[in-house]
Amino acid sequence: MSQGMTMNDVPTVAEEDVLRADLYDFLGVLLAAPPNEVLLKQTAGLSGNDTPLGKSVATLAHVAKASKPMAVEGEFNRLFIGLGRGELLPYASYYLTGFLNEKPLAALRSDMAARGLARSDSVFEPEDNIASLMEMMGAMIVGRFGVPVALAEQKTFYNRHIRPWAGHFYADLEGAKNSVFYAAVGAVGRAFIDVENEAFRMSAS
Q1: What average pLDDT does this structure show over 148-171?
Q2: What are the angstrom distances between the C-alpha of 194 and each of 113, 131, 202?
Q3: Residues 154, 131: Cα–Cα separation, whole Å
Q4: Which whole-number Å values give the CA distances from 56 to 43, 59, 63, in the listed order?
Q5: Over 70: is that where the pLDDT of 188 sits?
Q6: Residue-number span of the structural domain to which 183 is assigned
Q7: How many whole angstroms separate alpha carbon 156 and alpha carbon 148?
Q8: Is 181 within the bounds of a domain?
Q9: Which residues, 6 or more positions from 108, have their beta carbon under 8 angstroms from its beta carbon?
Q10: Which residues touch 121 (CB under 8 Å, ≥6 apart)?
Q11: Which of 17, 28, 62, 181 could be bridged to 134 by S-S, CB 3.0 to 4.6 A?
Q12: How much is the pLDDT for 109?
């Protein structure tokens, strides 16, 4: 905390924004690595509602209940690793240019540097992978990188690095031939992106 700042100066995070951050984090965790038995059980315990997002969460919980960790790990590997490459390449550069390590990655690195962020030495994937972007967005909302980021700045980051391609990626994940558990993850992601797109569209610039 900077000198001269009191606890009253730290922005509070609304409950709905905490829930948004939780969902970004959840998607990030599932897309970074295959879930272990504990995470699968937690996912199986989720409940939804009658909204498109709520229904997709309920479906994911149902699929998780019937899934085994080893089967989901095999699915993850076929989707994202494979022999040489997986069925999907979950990177902004690839979705926006058709190639890896292109201008979208450079733009993201510039924005990360402006916020004092850098890739961990233990991480070797490009920063524009979907899991990292979900993690970054969730962290900005609740202030894990410092103080919570204002909605206008969230919107700028989202519109630049997530909105142009994440919905397309989640739709591809939902329909991928190797997707079973991850088809349900894709449905949740696609529904969530639809909600965020509309919320940011309606928010003030």
Answers
A1: 96
A2: 28, 18, 12
A3: 17
A4: 12, 5, 11
A5: yes
A6: 12-202
A7: 14
A8: yes
A9: 92, 127, 128, 133, 161
A10: none
A11: 28
A12: 95
Does residue 75 fall inside a structural domain? yes
Q: Cα angle vertex 52, ends 151, 182, to 5°? A: 90
For 113-153, what is each residue's pLDDT tens digit? Answer: 888 777 777 777 899 999 999 999 999 999 988 889 999 99
Is residue 17 in some structural domain? Answer: yes
C-alpha span between 175 and 98 (Å, rounded): 19
Domain total in the chain: 1
Q: Which one is predicted more confidently, 8 or 56?
A: 56
Cα 15 from Cα 181, distance rounded (Å): 29
Closest CA to 48 of 24, 23, 17, 21: 23
Which residues face 91 on adjacent strands? Answer: 129
Q: How far is CA 64 from CA 42, 52, 53, 60, 88, in A?
A: 9, 18, 16, 6, 21
Name the percent of the chain in helix, strand, coil, to the closest 5.
65, 0, 35
Residue type, 94: Y
Q: Domain of 105: which CATH number?
A: 1.10.3480.10
Amino acid in the structure at residue 76 = F
Q: How far is CA 67 from CA 24, 75, 86, 176, 184, in A?
A: 22, 11, 21, 17, 12
E strand intervals along the chain? none
Contact 140, 149 (CB under 8 A): yes
